[in-house]
């Protein structure tokens, strides 16, 4: 198929798709993060919200594909709703739109036995108050998405009443939905384990779908690519969620073992390609349905954080572009006629097509650097942030952001 398409034809075919592709960067991806075995401090890491906006603006300037940044409430709004005006001002100053709002329902000691699922009604109330403030912040920011992840669960059999916790979660999620603004969405993210290692209250797509459905029509499921058991077919889960009109968004990263939060495409680029293909196929059959939100959710513990974020946005563009080369009419015909090898080879040919020349052309046409990573290294931005932020980044606080 595509080996017949010359680079110019590929550029033609990809131009409008690339214009329409955007992926949100996570503020926490620019901060010092680590594992339970420690945090390796990067002098150039972002410490303040302004530094996170500055780094996000740098990535946008180099790639033209990430105009917004996801924020985590306790890490980016230490004064809660009181910080909204300052955040909007930073957004204007750096040309980066404040994106999805992620409440923090972990780290706080009070959440030892859970937040929405905690047997103590006072703790559930406290958690709901934090989420309702997060809803208010998201509304102030223009009804952006409220993105919910719960660390809730237990570590040993018999230590928690699983069905009582289901009821408490329904209560919390329904109260959250009731507070949403016009057209505002709440996304329910699932994760099979970590930090809980016996049961997690929202452990898979089915639990997240049932909770979202019961919460209300503005609730959808968020799929974090790192939140699956080994060898689970993620694109089949996406097919189901799209079929049920319940796919709200994705958190992109890569992993080999667990929730490794490695850079997208660094372990299994074909997996990410199959994910984009499944979404593109659905979109081609349901053009009226708005695409899911694409968000990066990674922690760059060793790589330079801005470099890793640029690398990730480029990988996302490349893998999305490959998926956009597939002629869905042709593929579904081969599928319907069970021409197995032709169908598989047709899809694989798209994956093996080198779209980098077309991406370089797309960038140059838009005044963007042909080689963003090389331009970043030559820009002096990394050395400047190292100098400017040097003194601040000495203290090794908690393991995350
Ligand atoms: C949990 C998670 C969630 C975020 C956190 C930073 O593993 O994927 O989306 O809140 O990472
Ligand atoms: Mn996530």
Could you describe the 3D structure shown?
By secondary structure, this protein is α/β, with parallel strands linked by helices. The chain has helices at 7-19, 49-63, 73-76, 84-94, 121-140, 162-178, 205-215, 234-243, 269-285, 305-323, 328-336, 340-352, 356-365, 372-379, 381-389, and strands at residues 25-26, 68-72, 97-102, 146-149, 153-154, 186-189, 199-200, 219-224, 247-252, 293-296. Helix 5 (121-140) runs parallel beside helix 6 (162-178) and helix 8 packs parallel to helix 9.
Main pleated-sheet profile: 5 strands, parallel
Number of strands: 10
The CATH C-level class name: Alpha Beta
Global shape: globular
The overall number of domains is 1
Structural class: alpha/beta
The rounded distance between the terminal residues' Cα atoms is 45 Å
What's the gist of this structure?
This protein is α/β, with parallel strands linked by helices and 401 residues long. The chain has helices spanning 7-19, 49-63, 73-76, 84-94, 121-140, 162-178, 205-215, 234-243, 269-285, 305-323, 328-336, 340-352, 356-365, 372-379, 381-389, and strands at residues 25-26, 68-72, 97-102, 146-149, 153-154, 186-189, 199-200, 219-224, 247-252, 293-296.
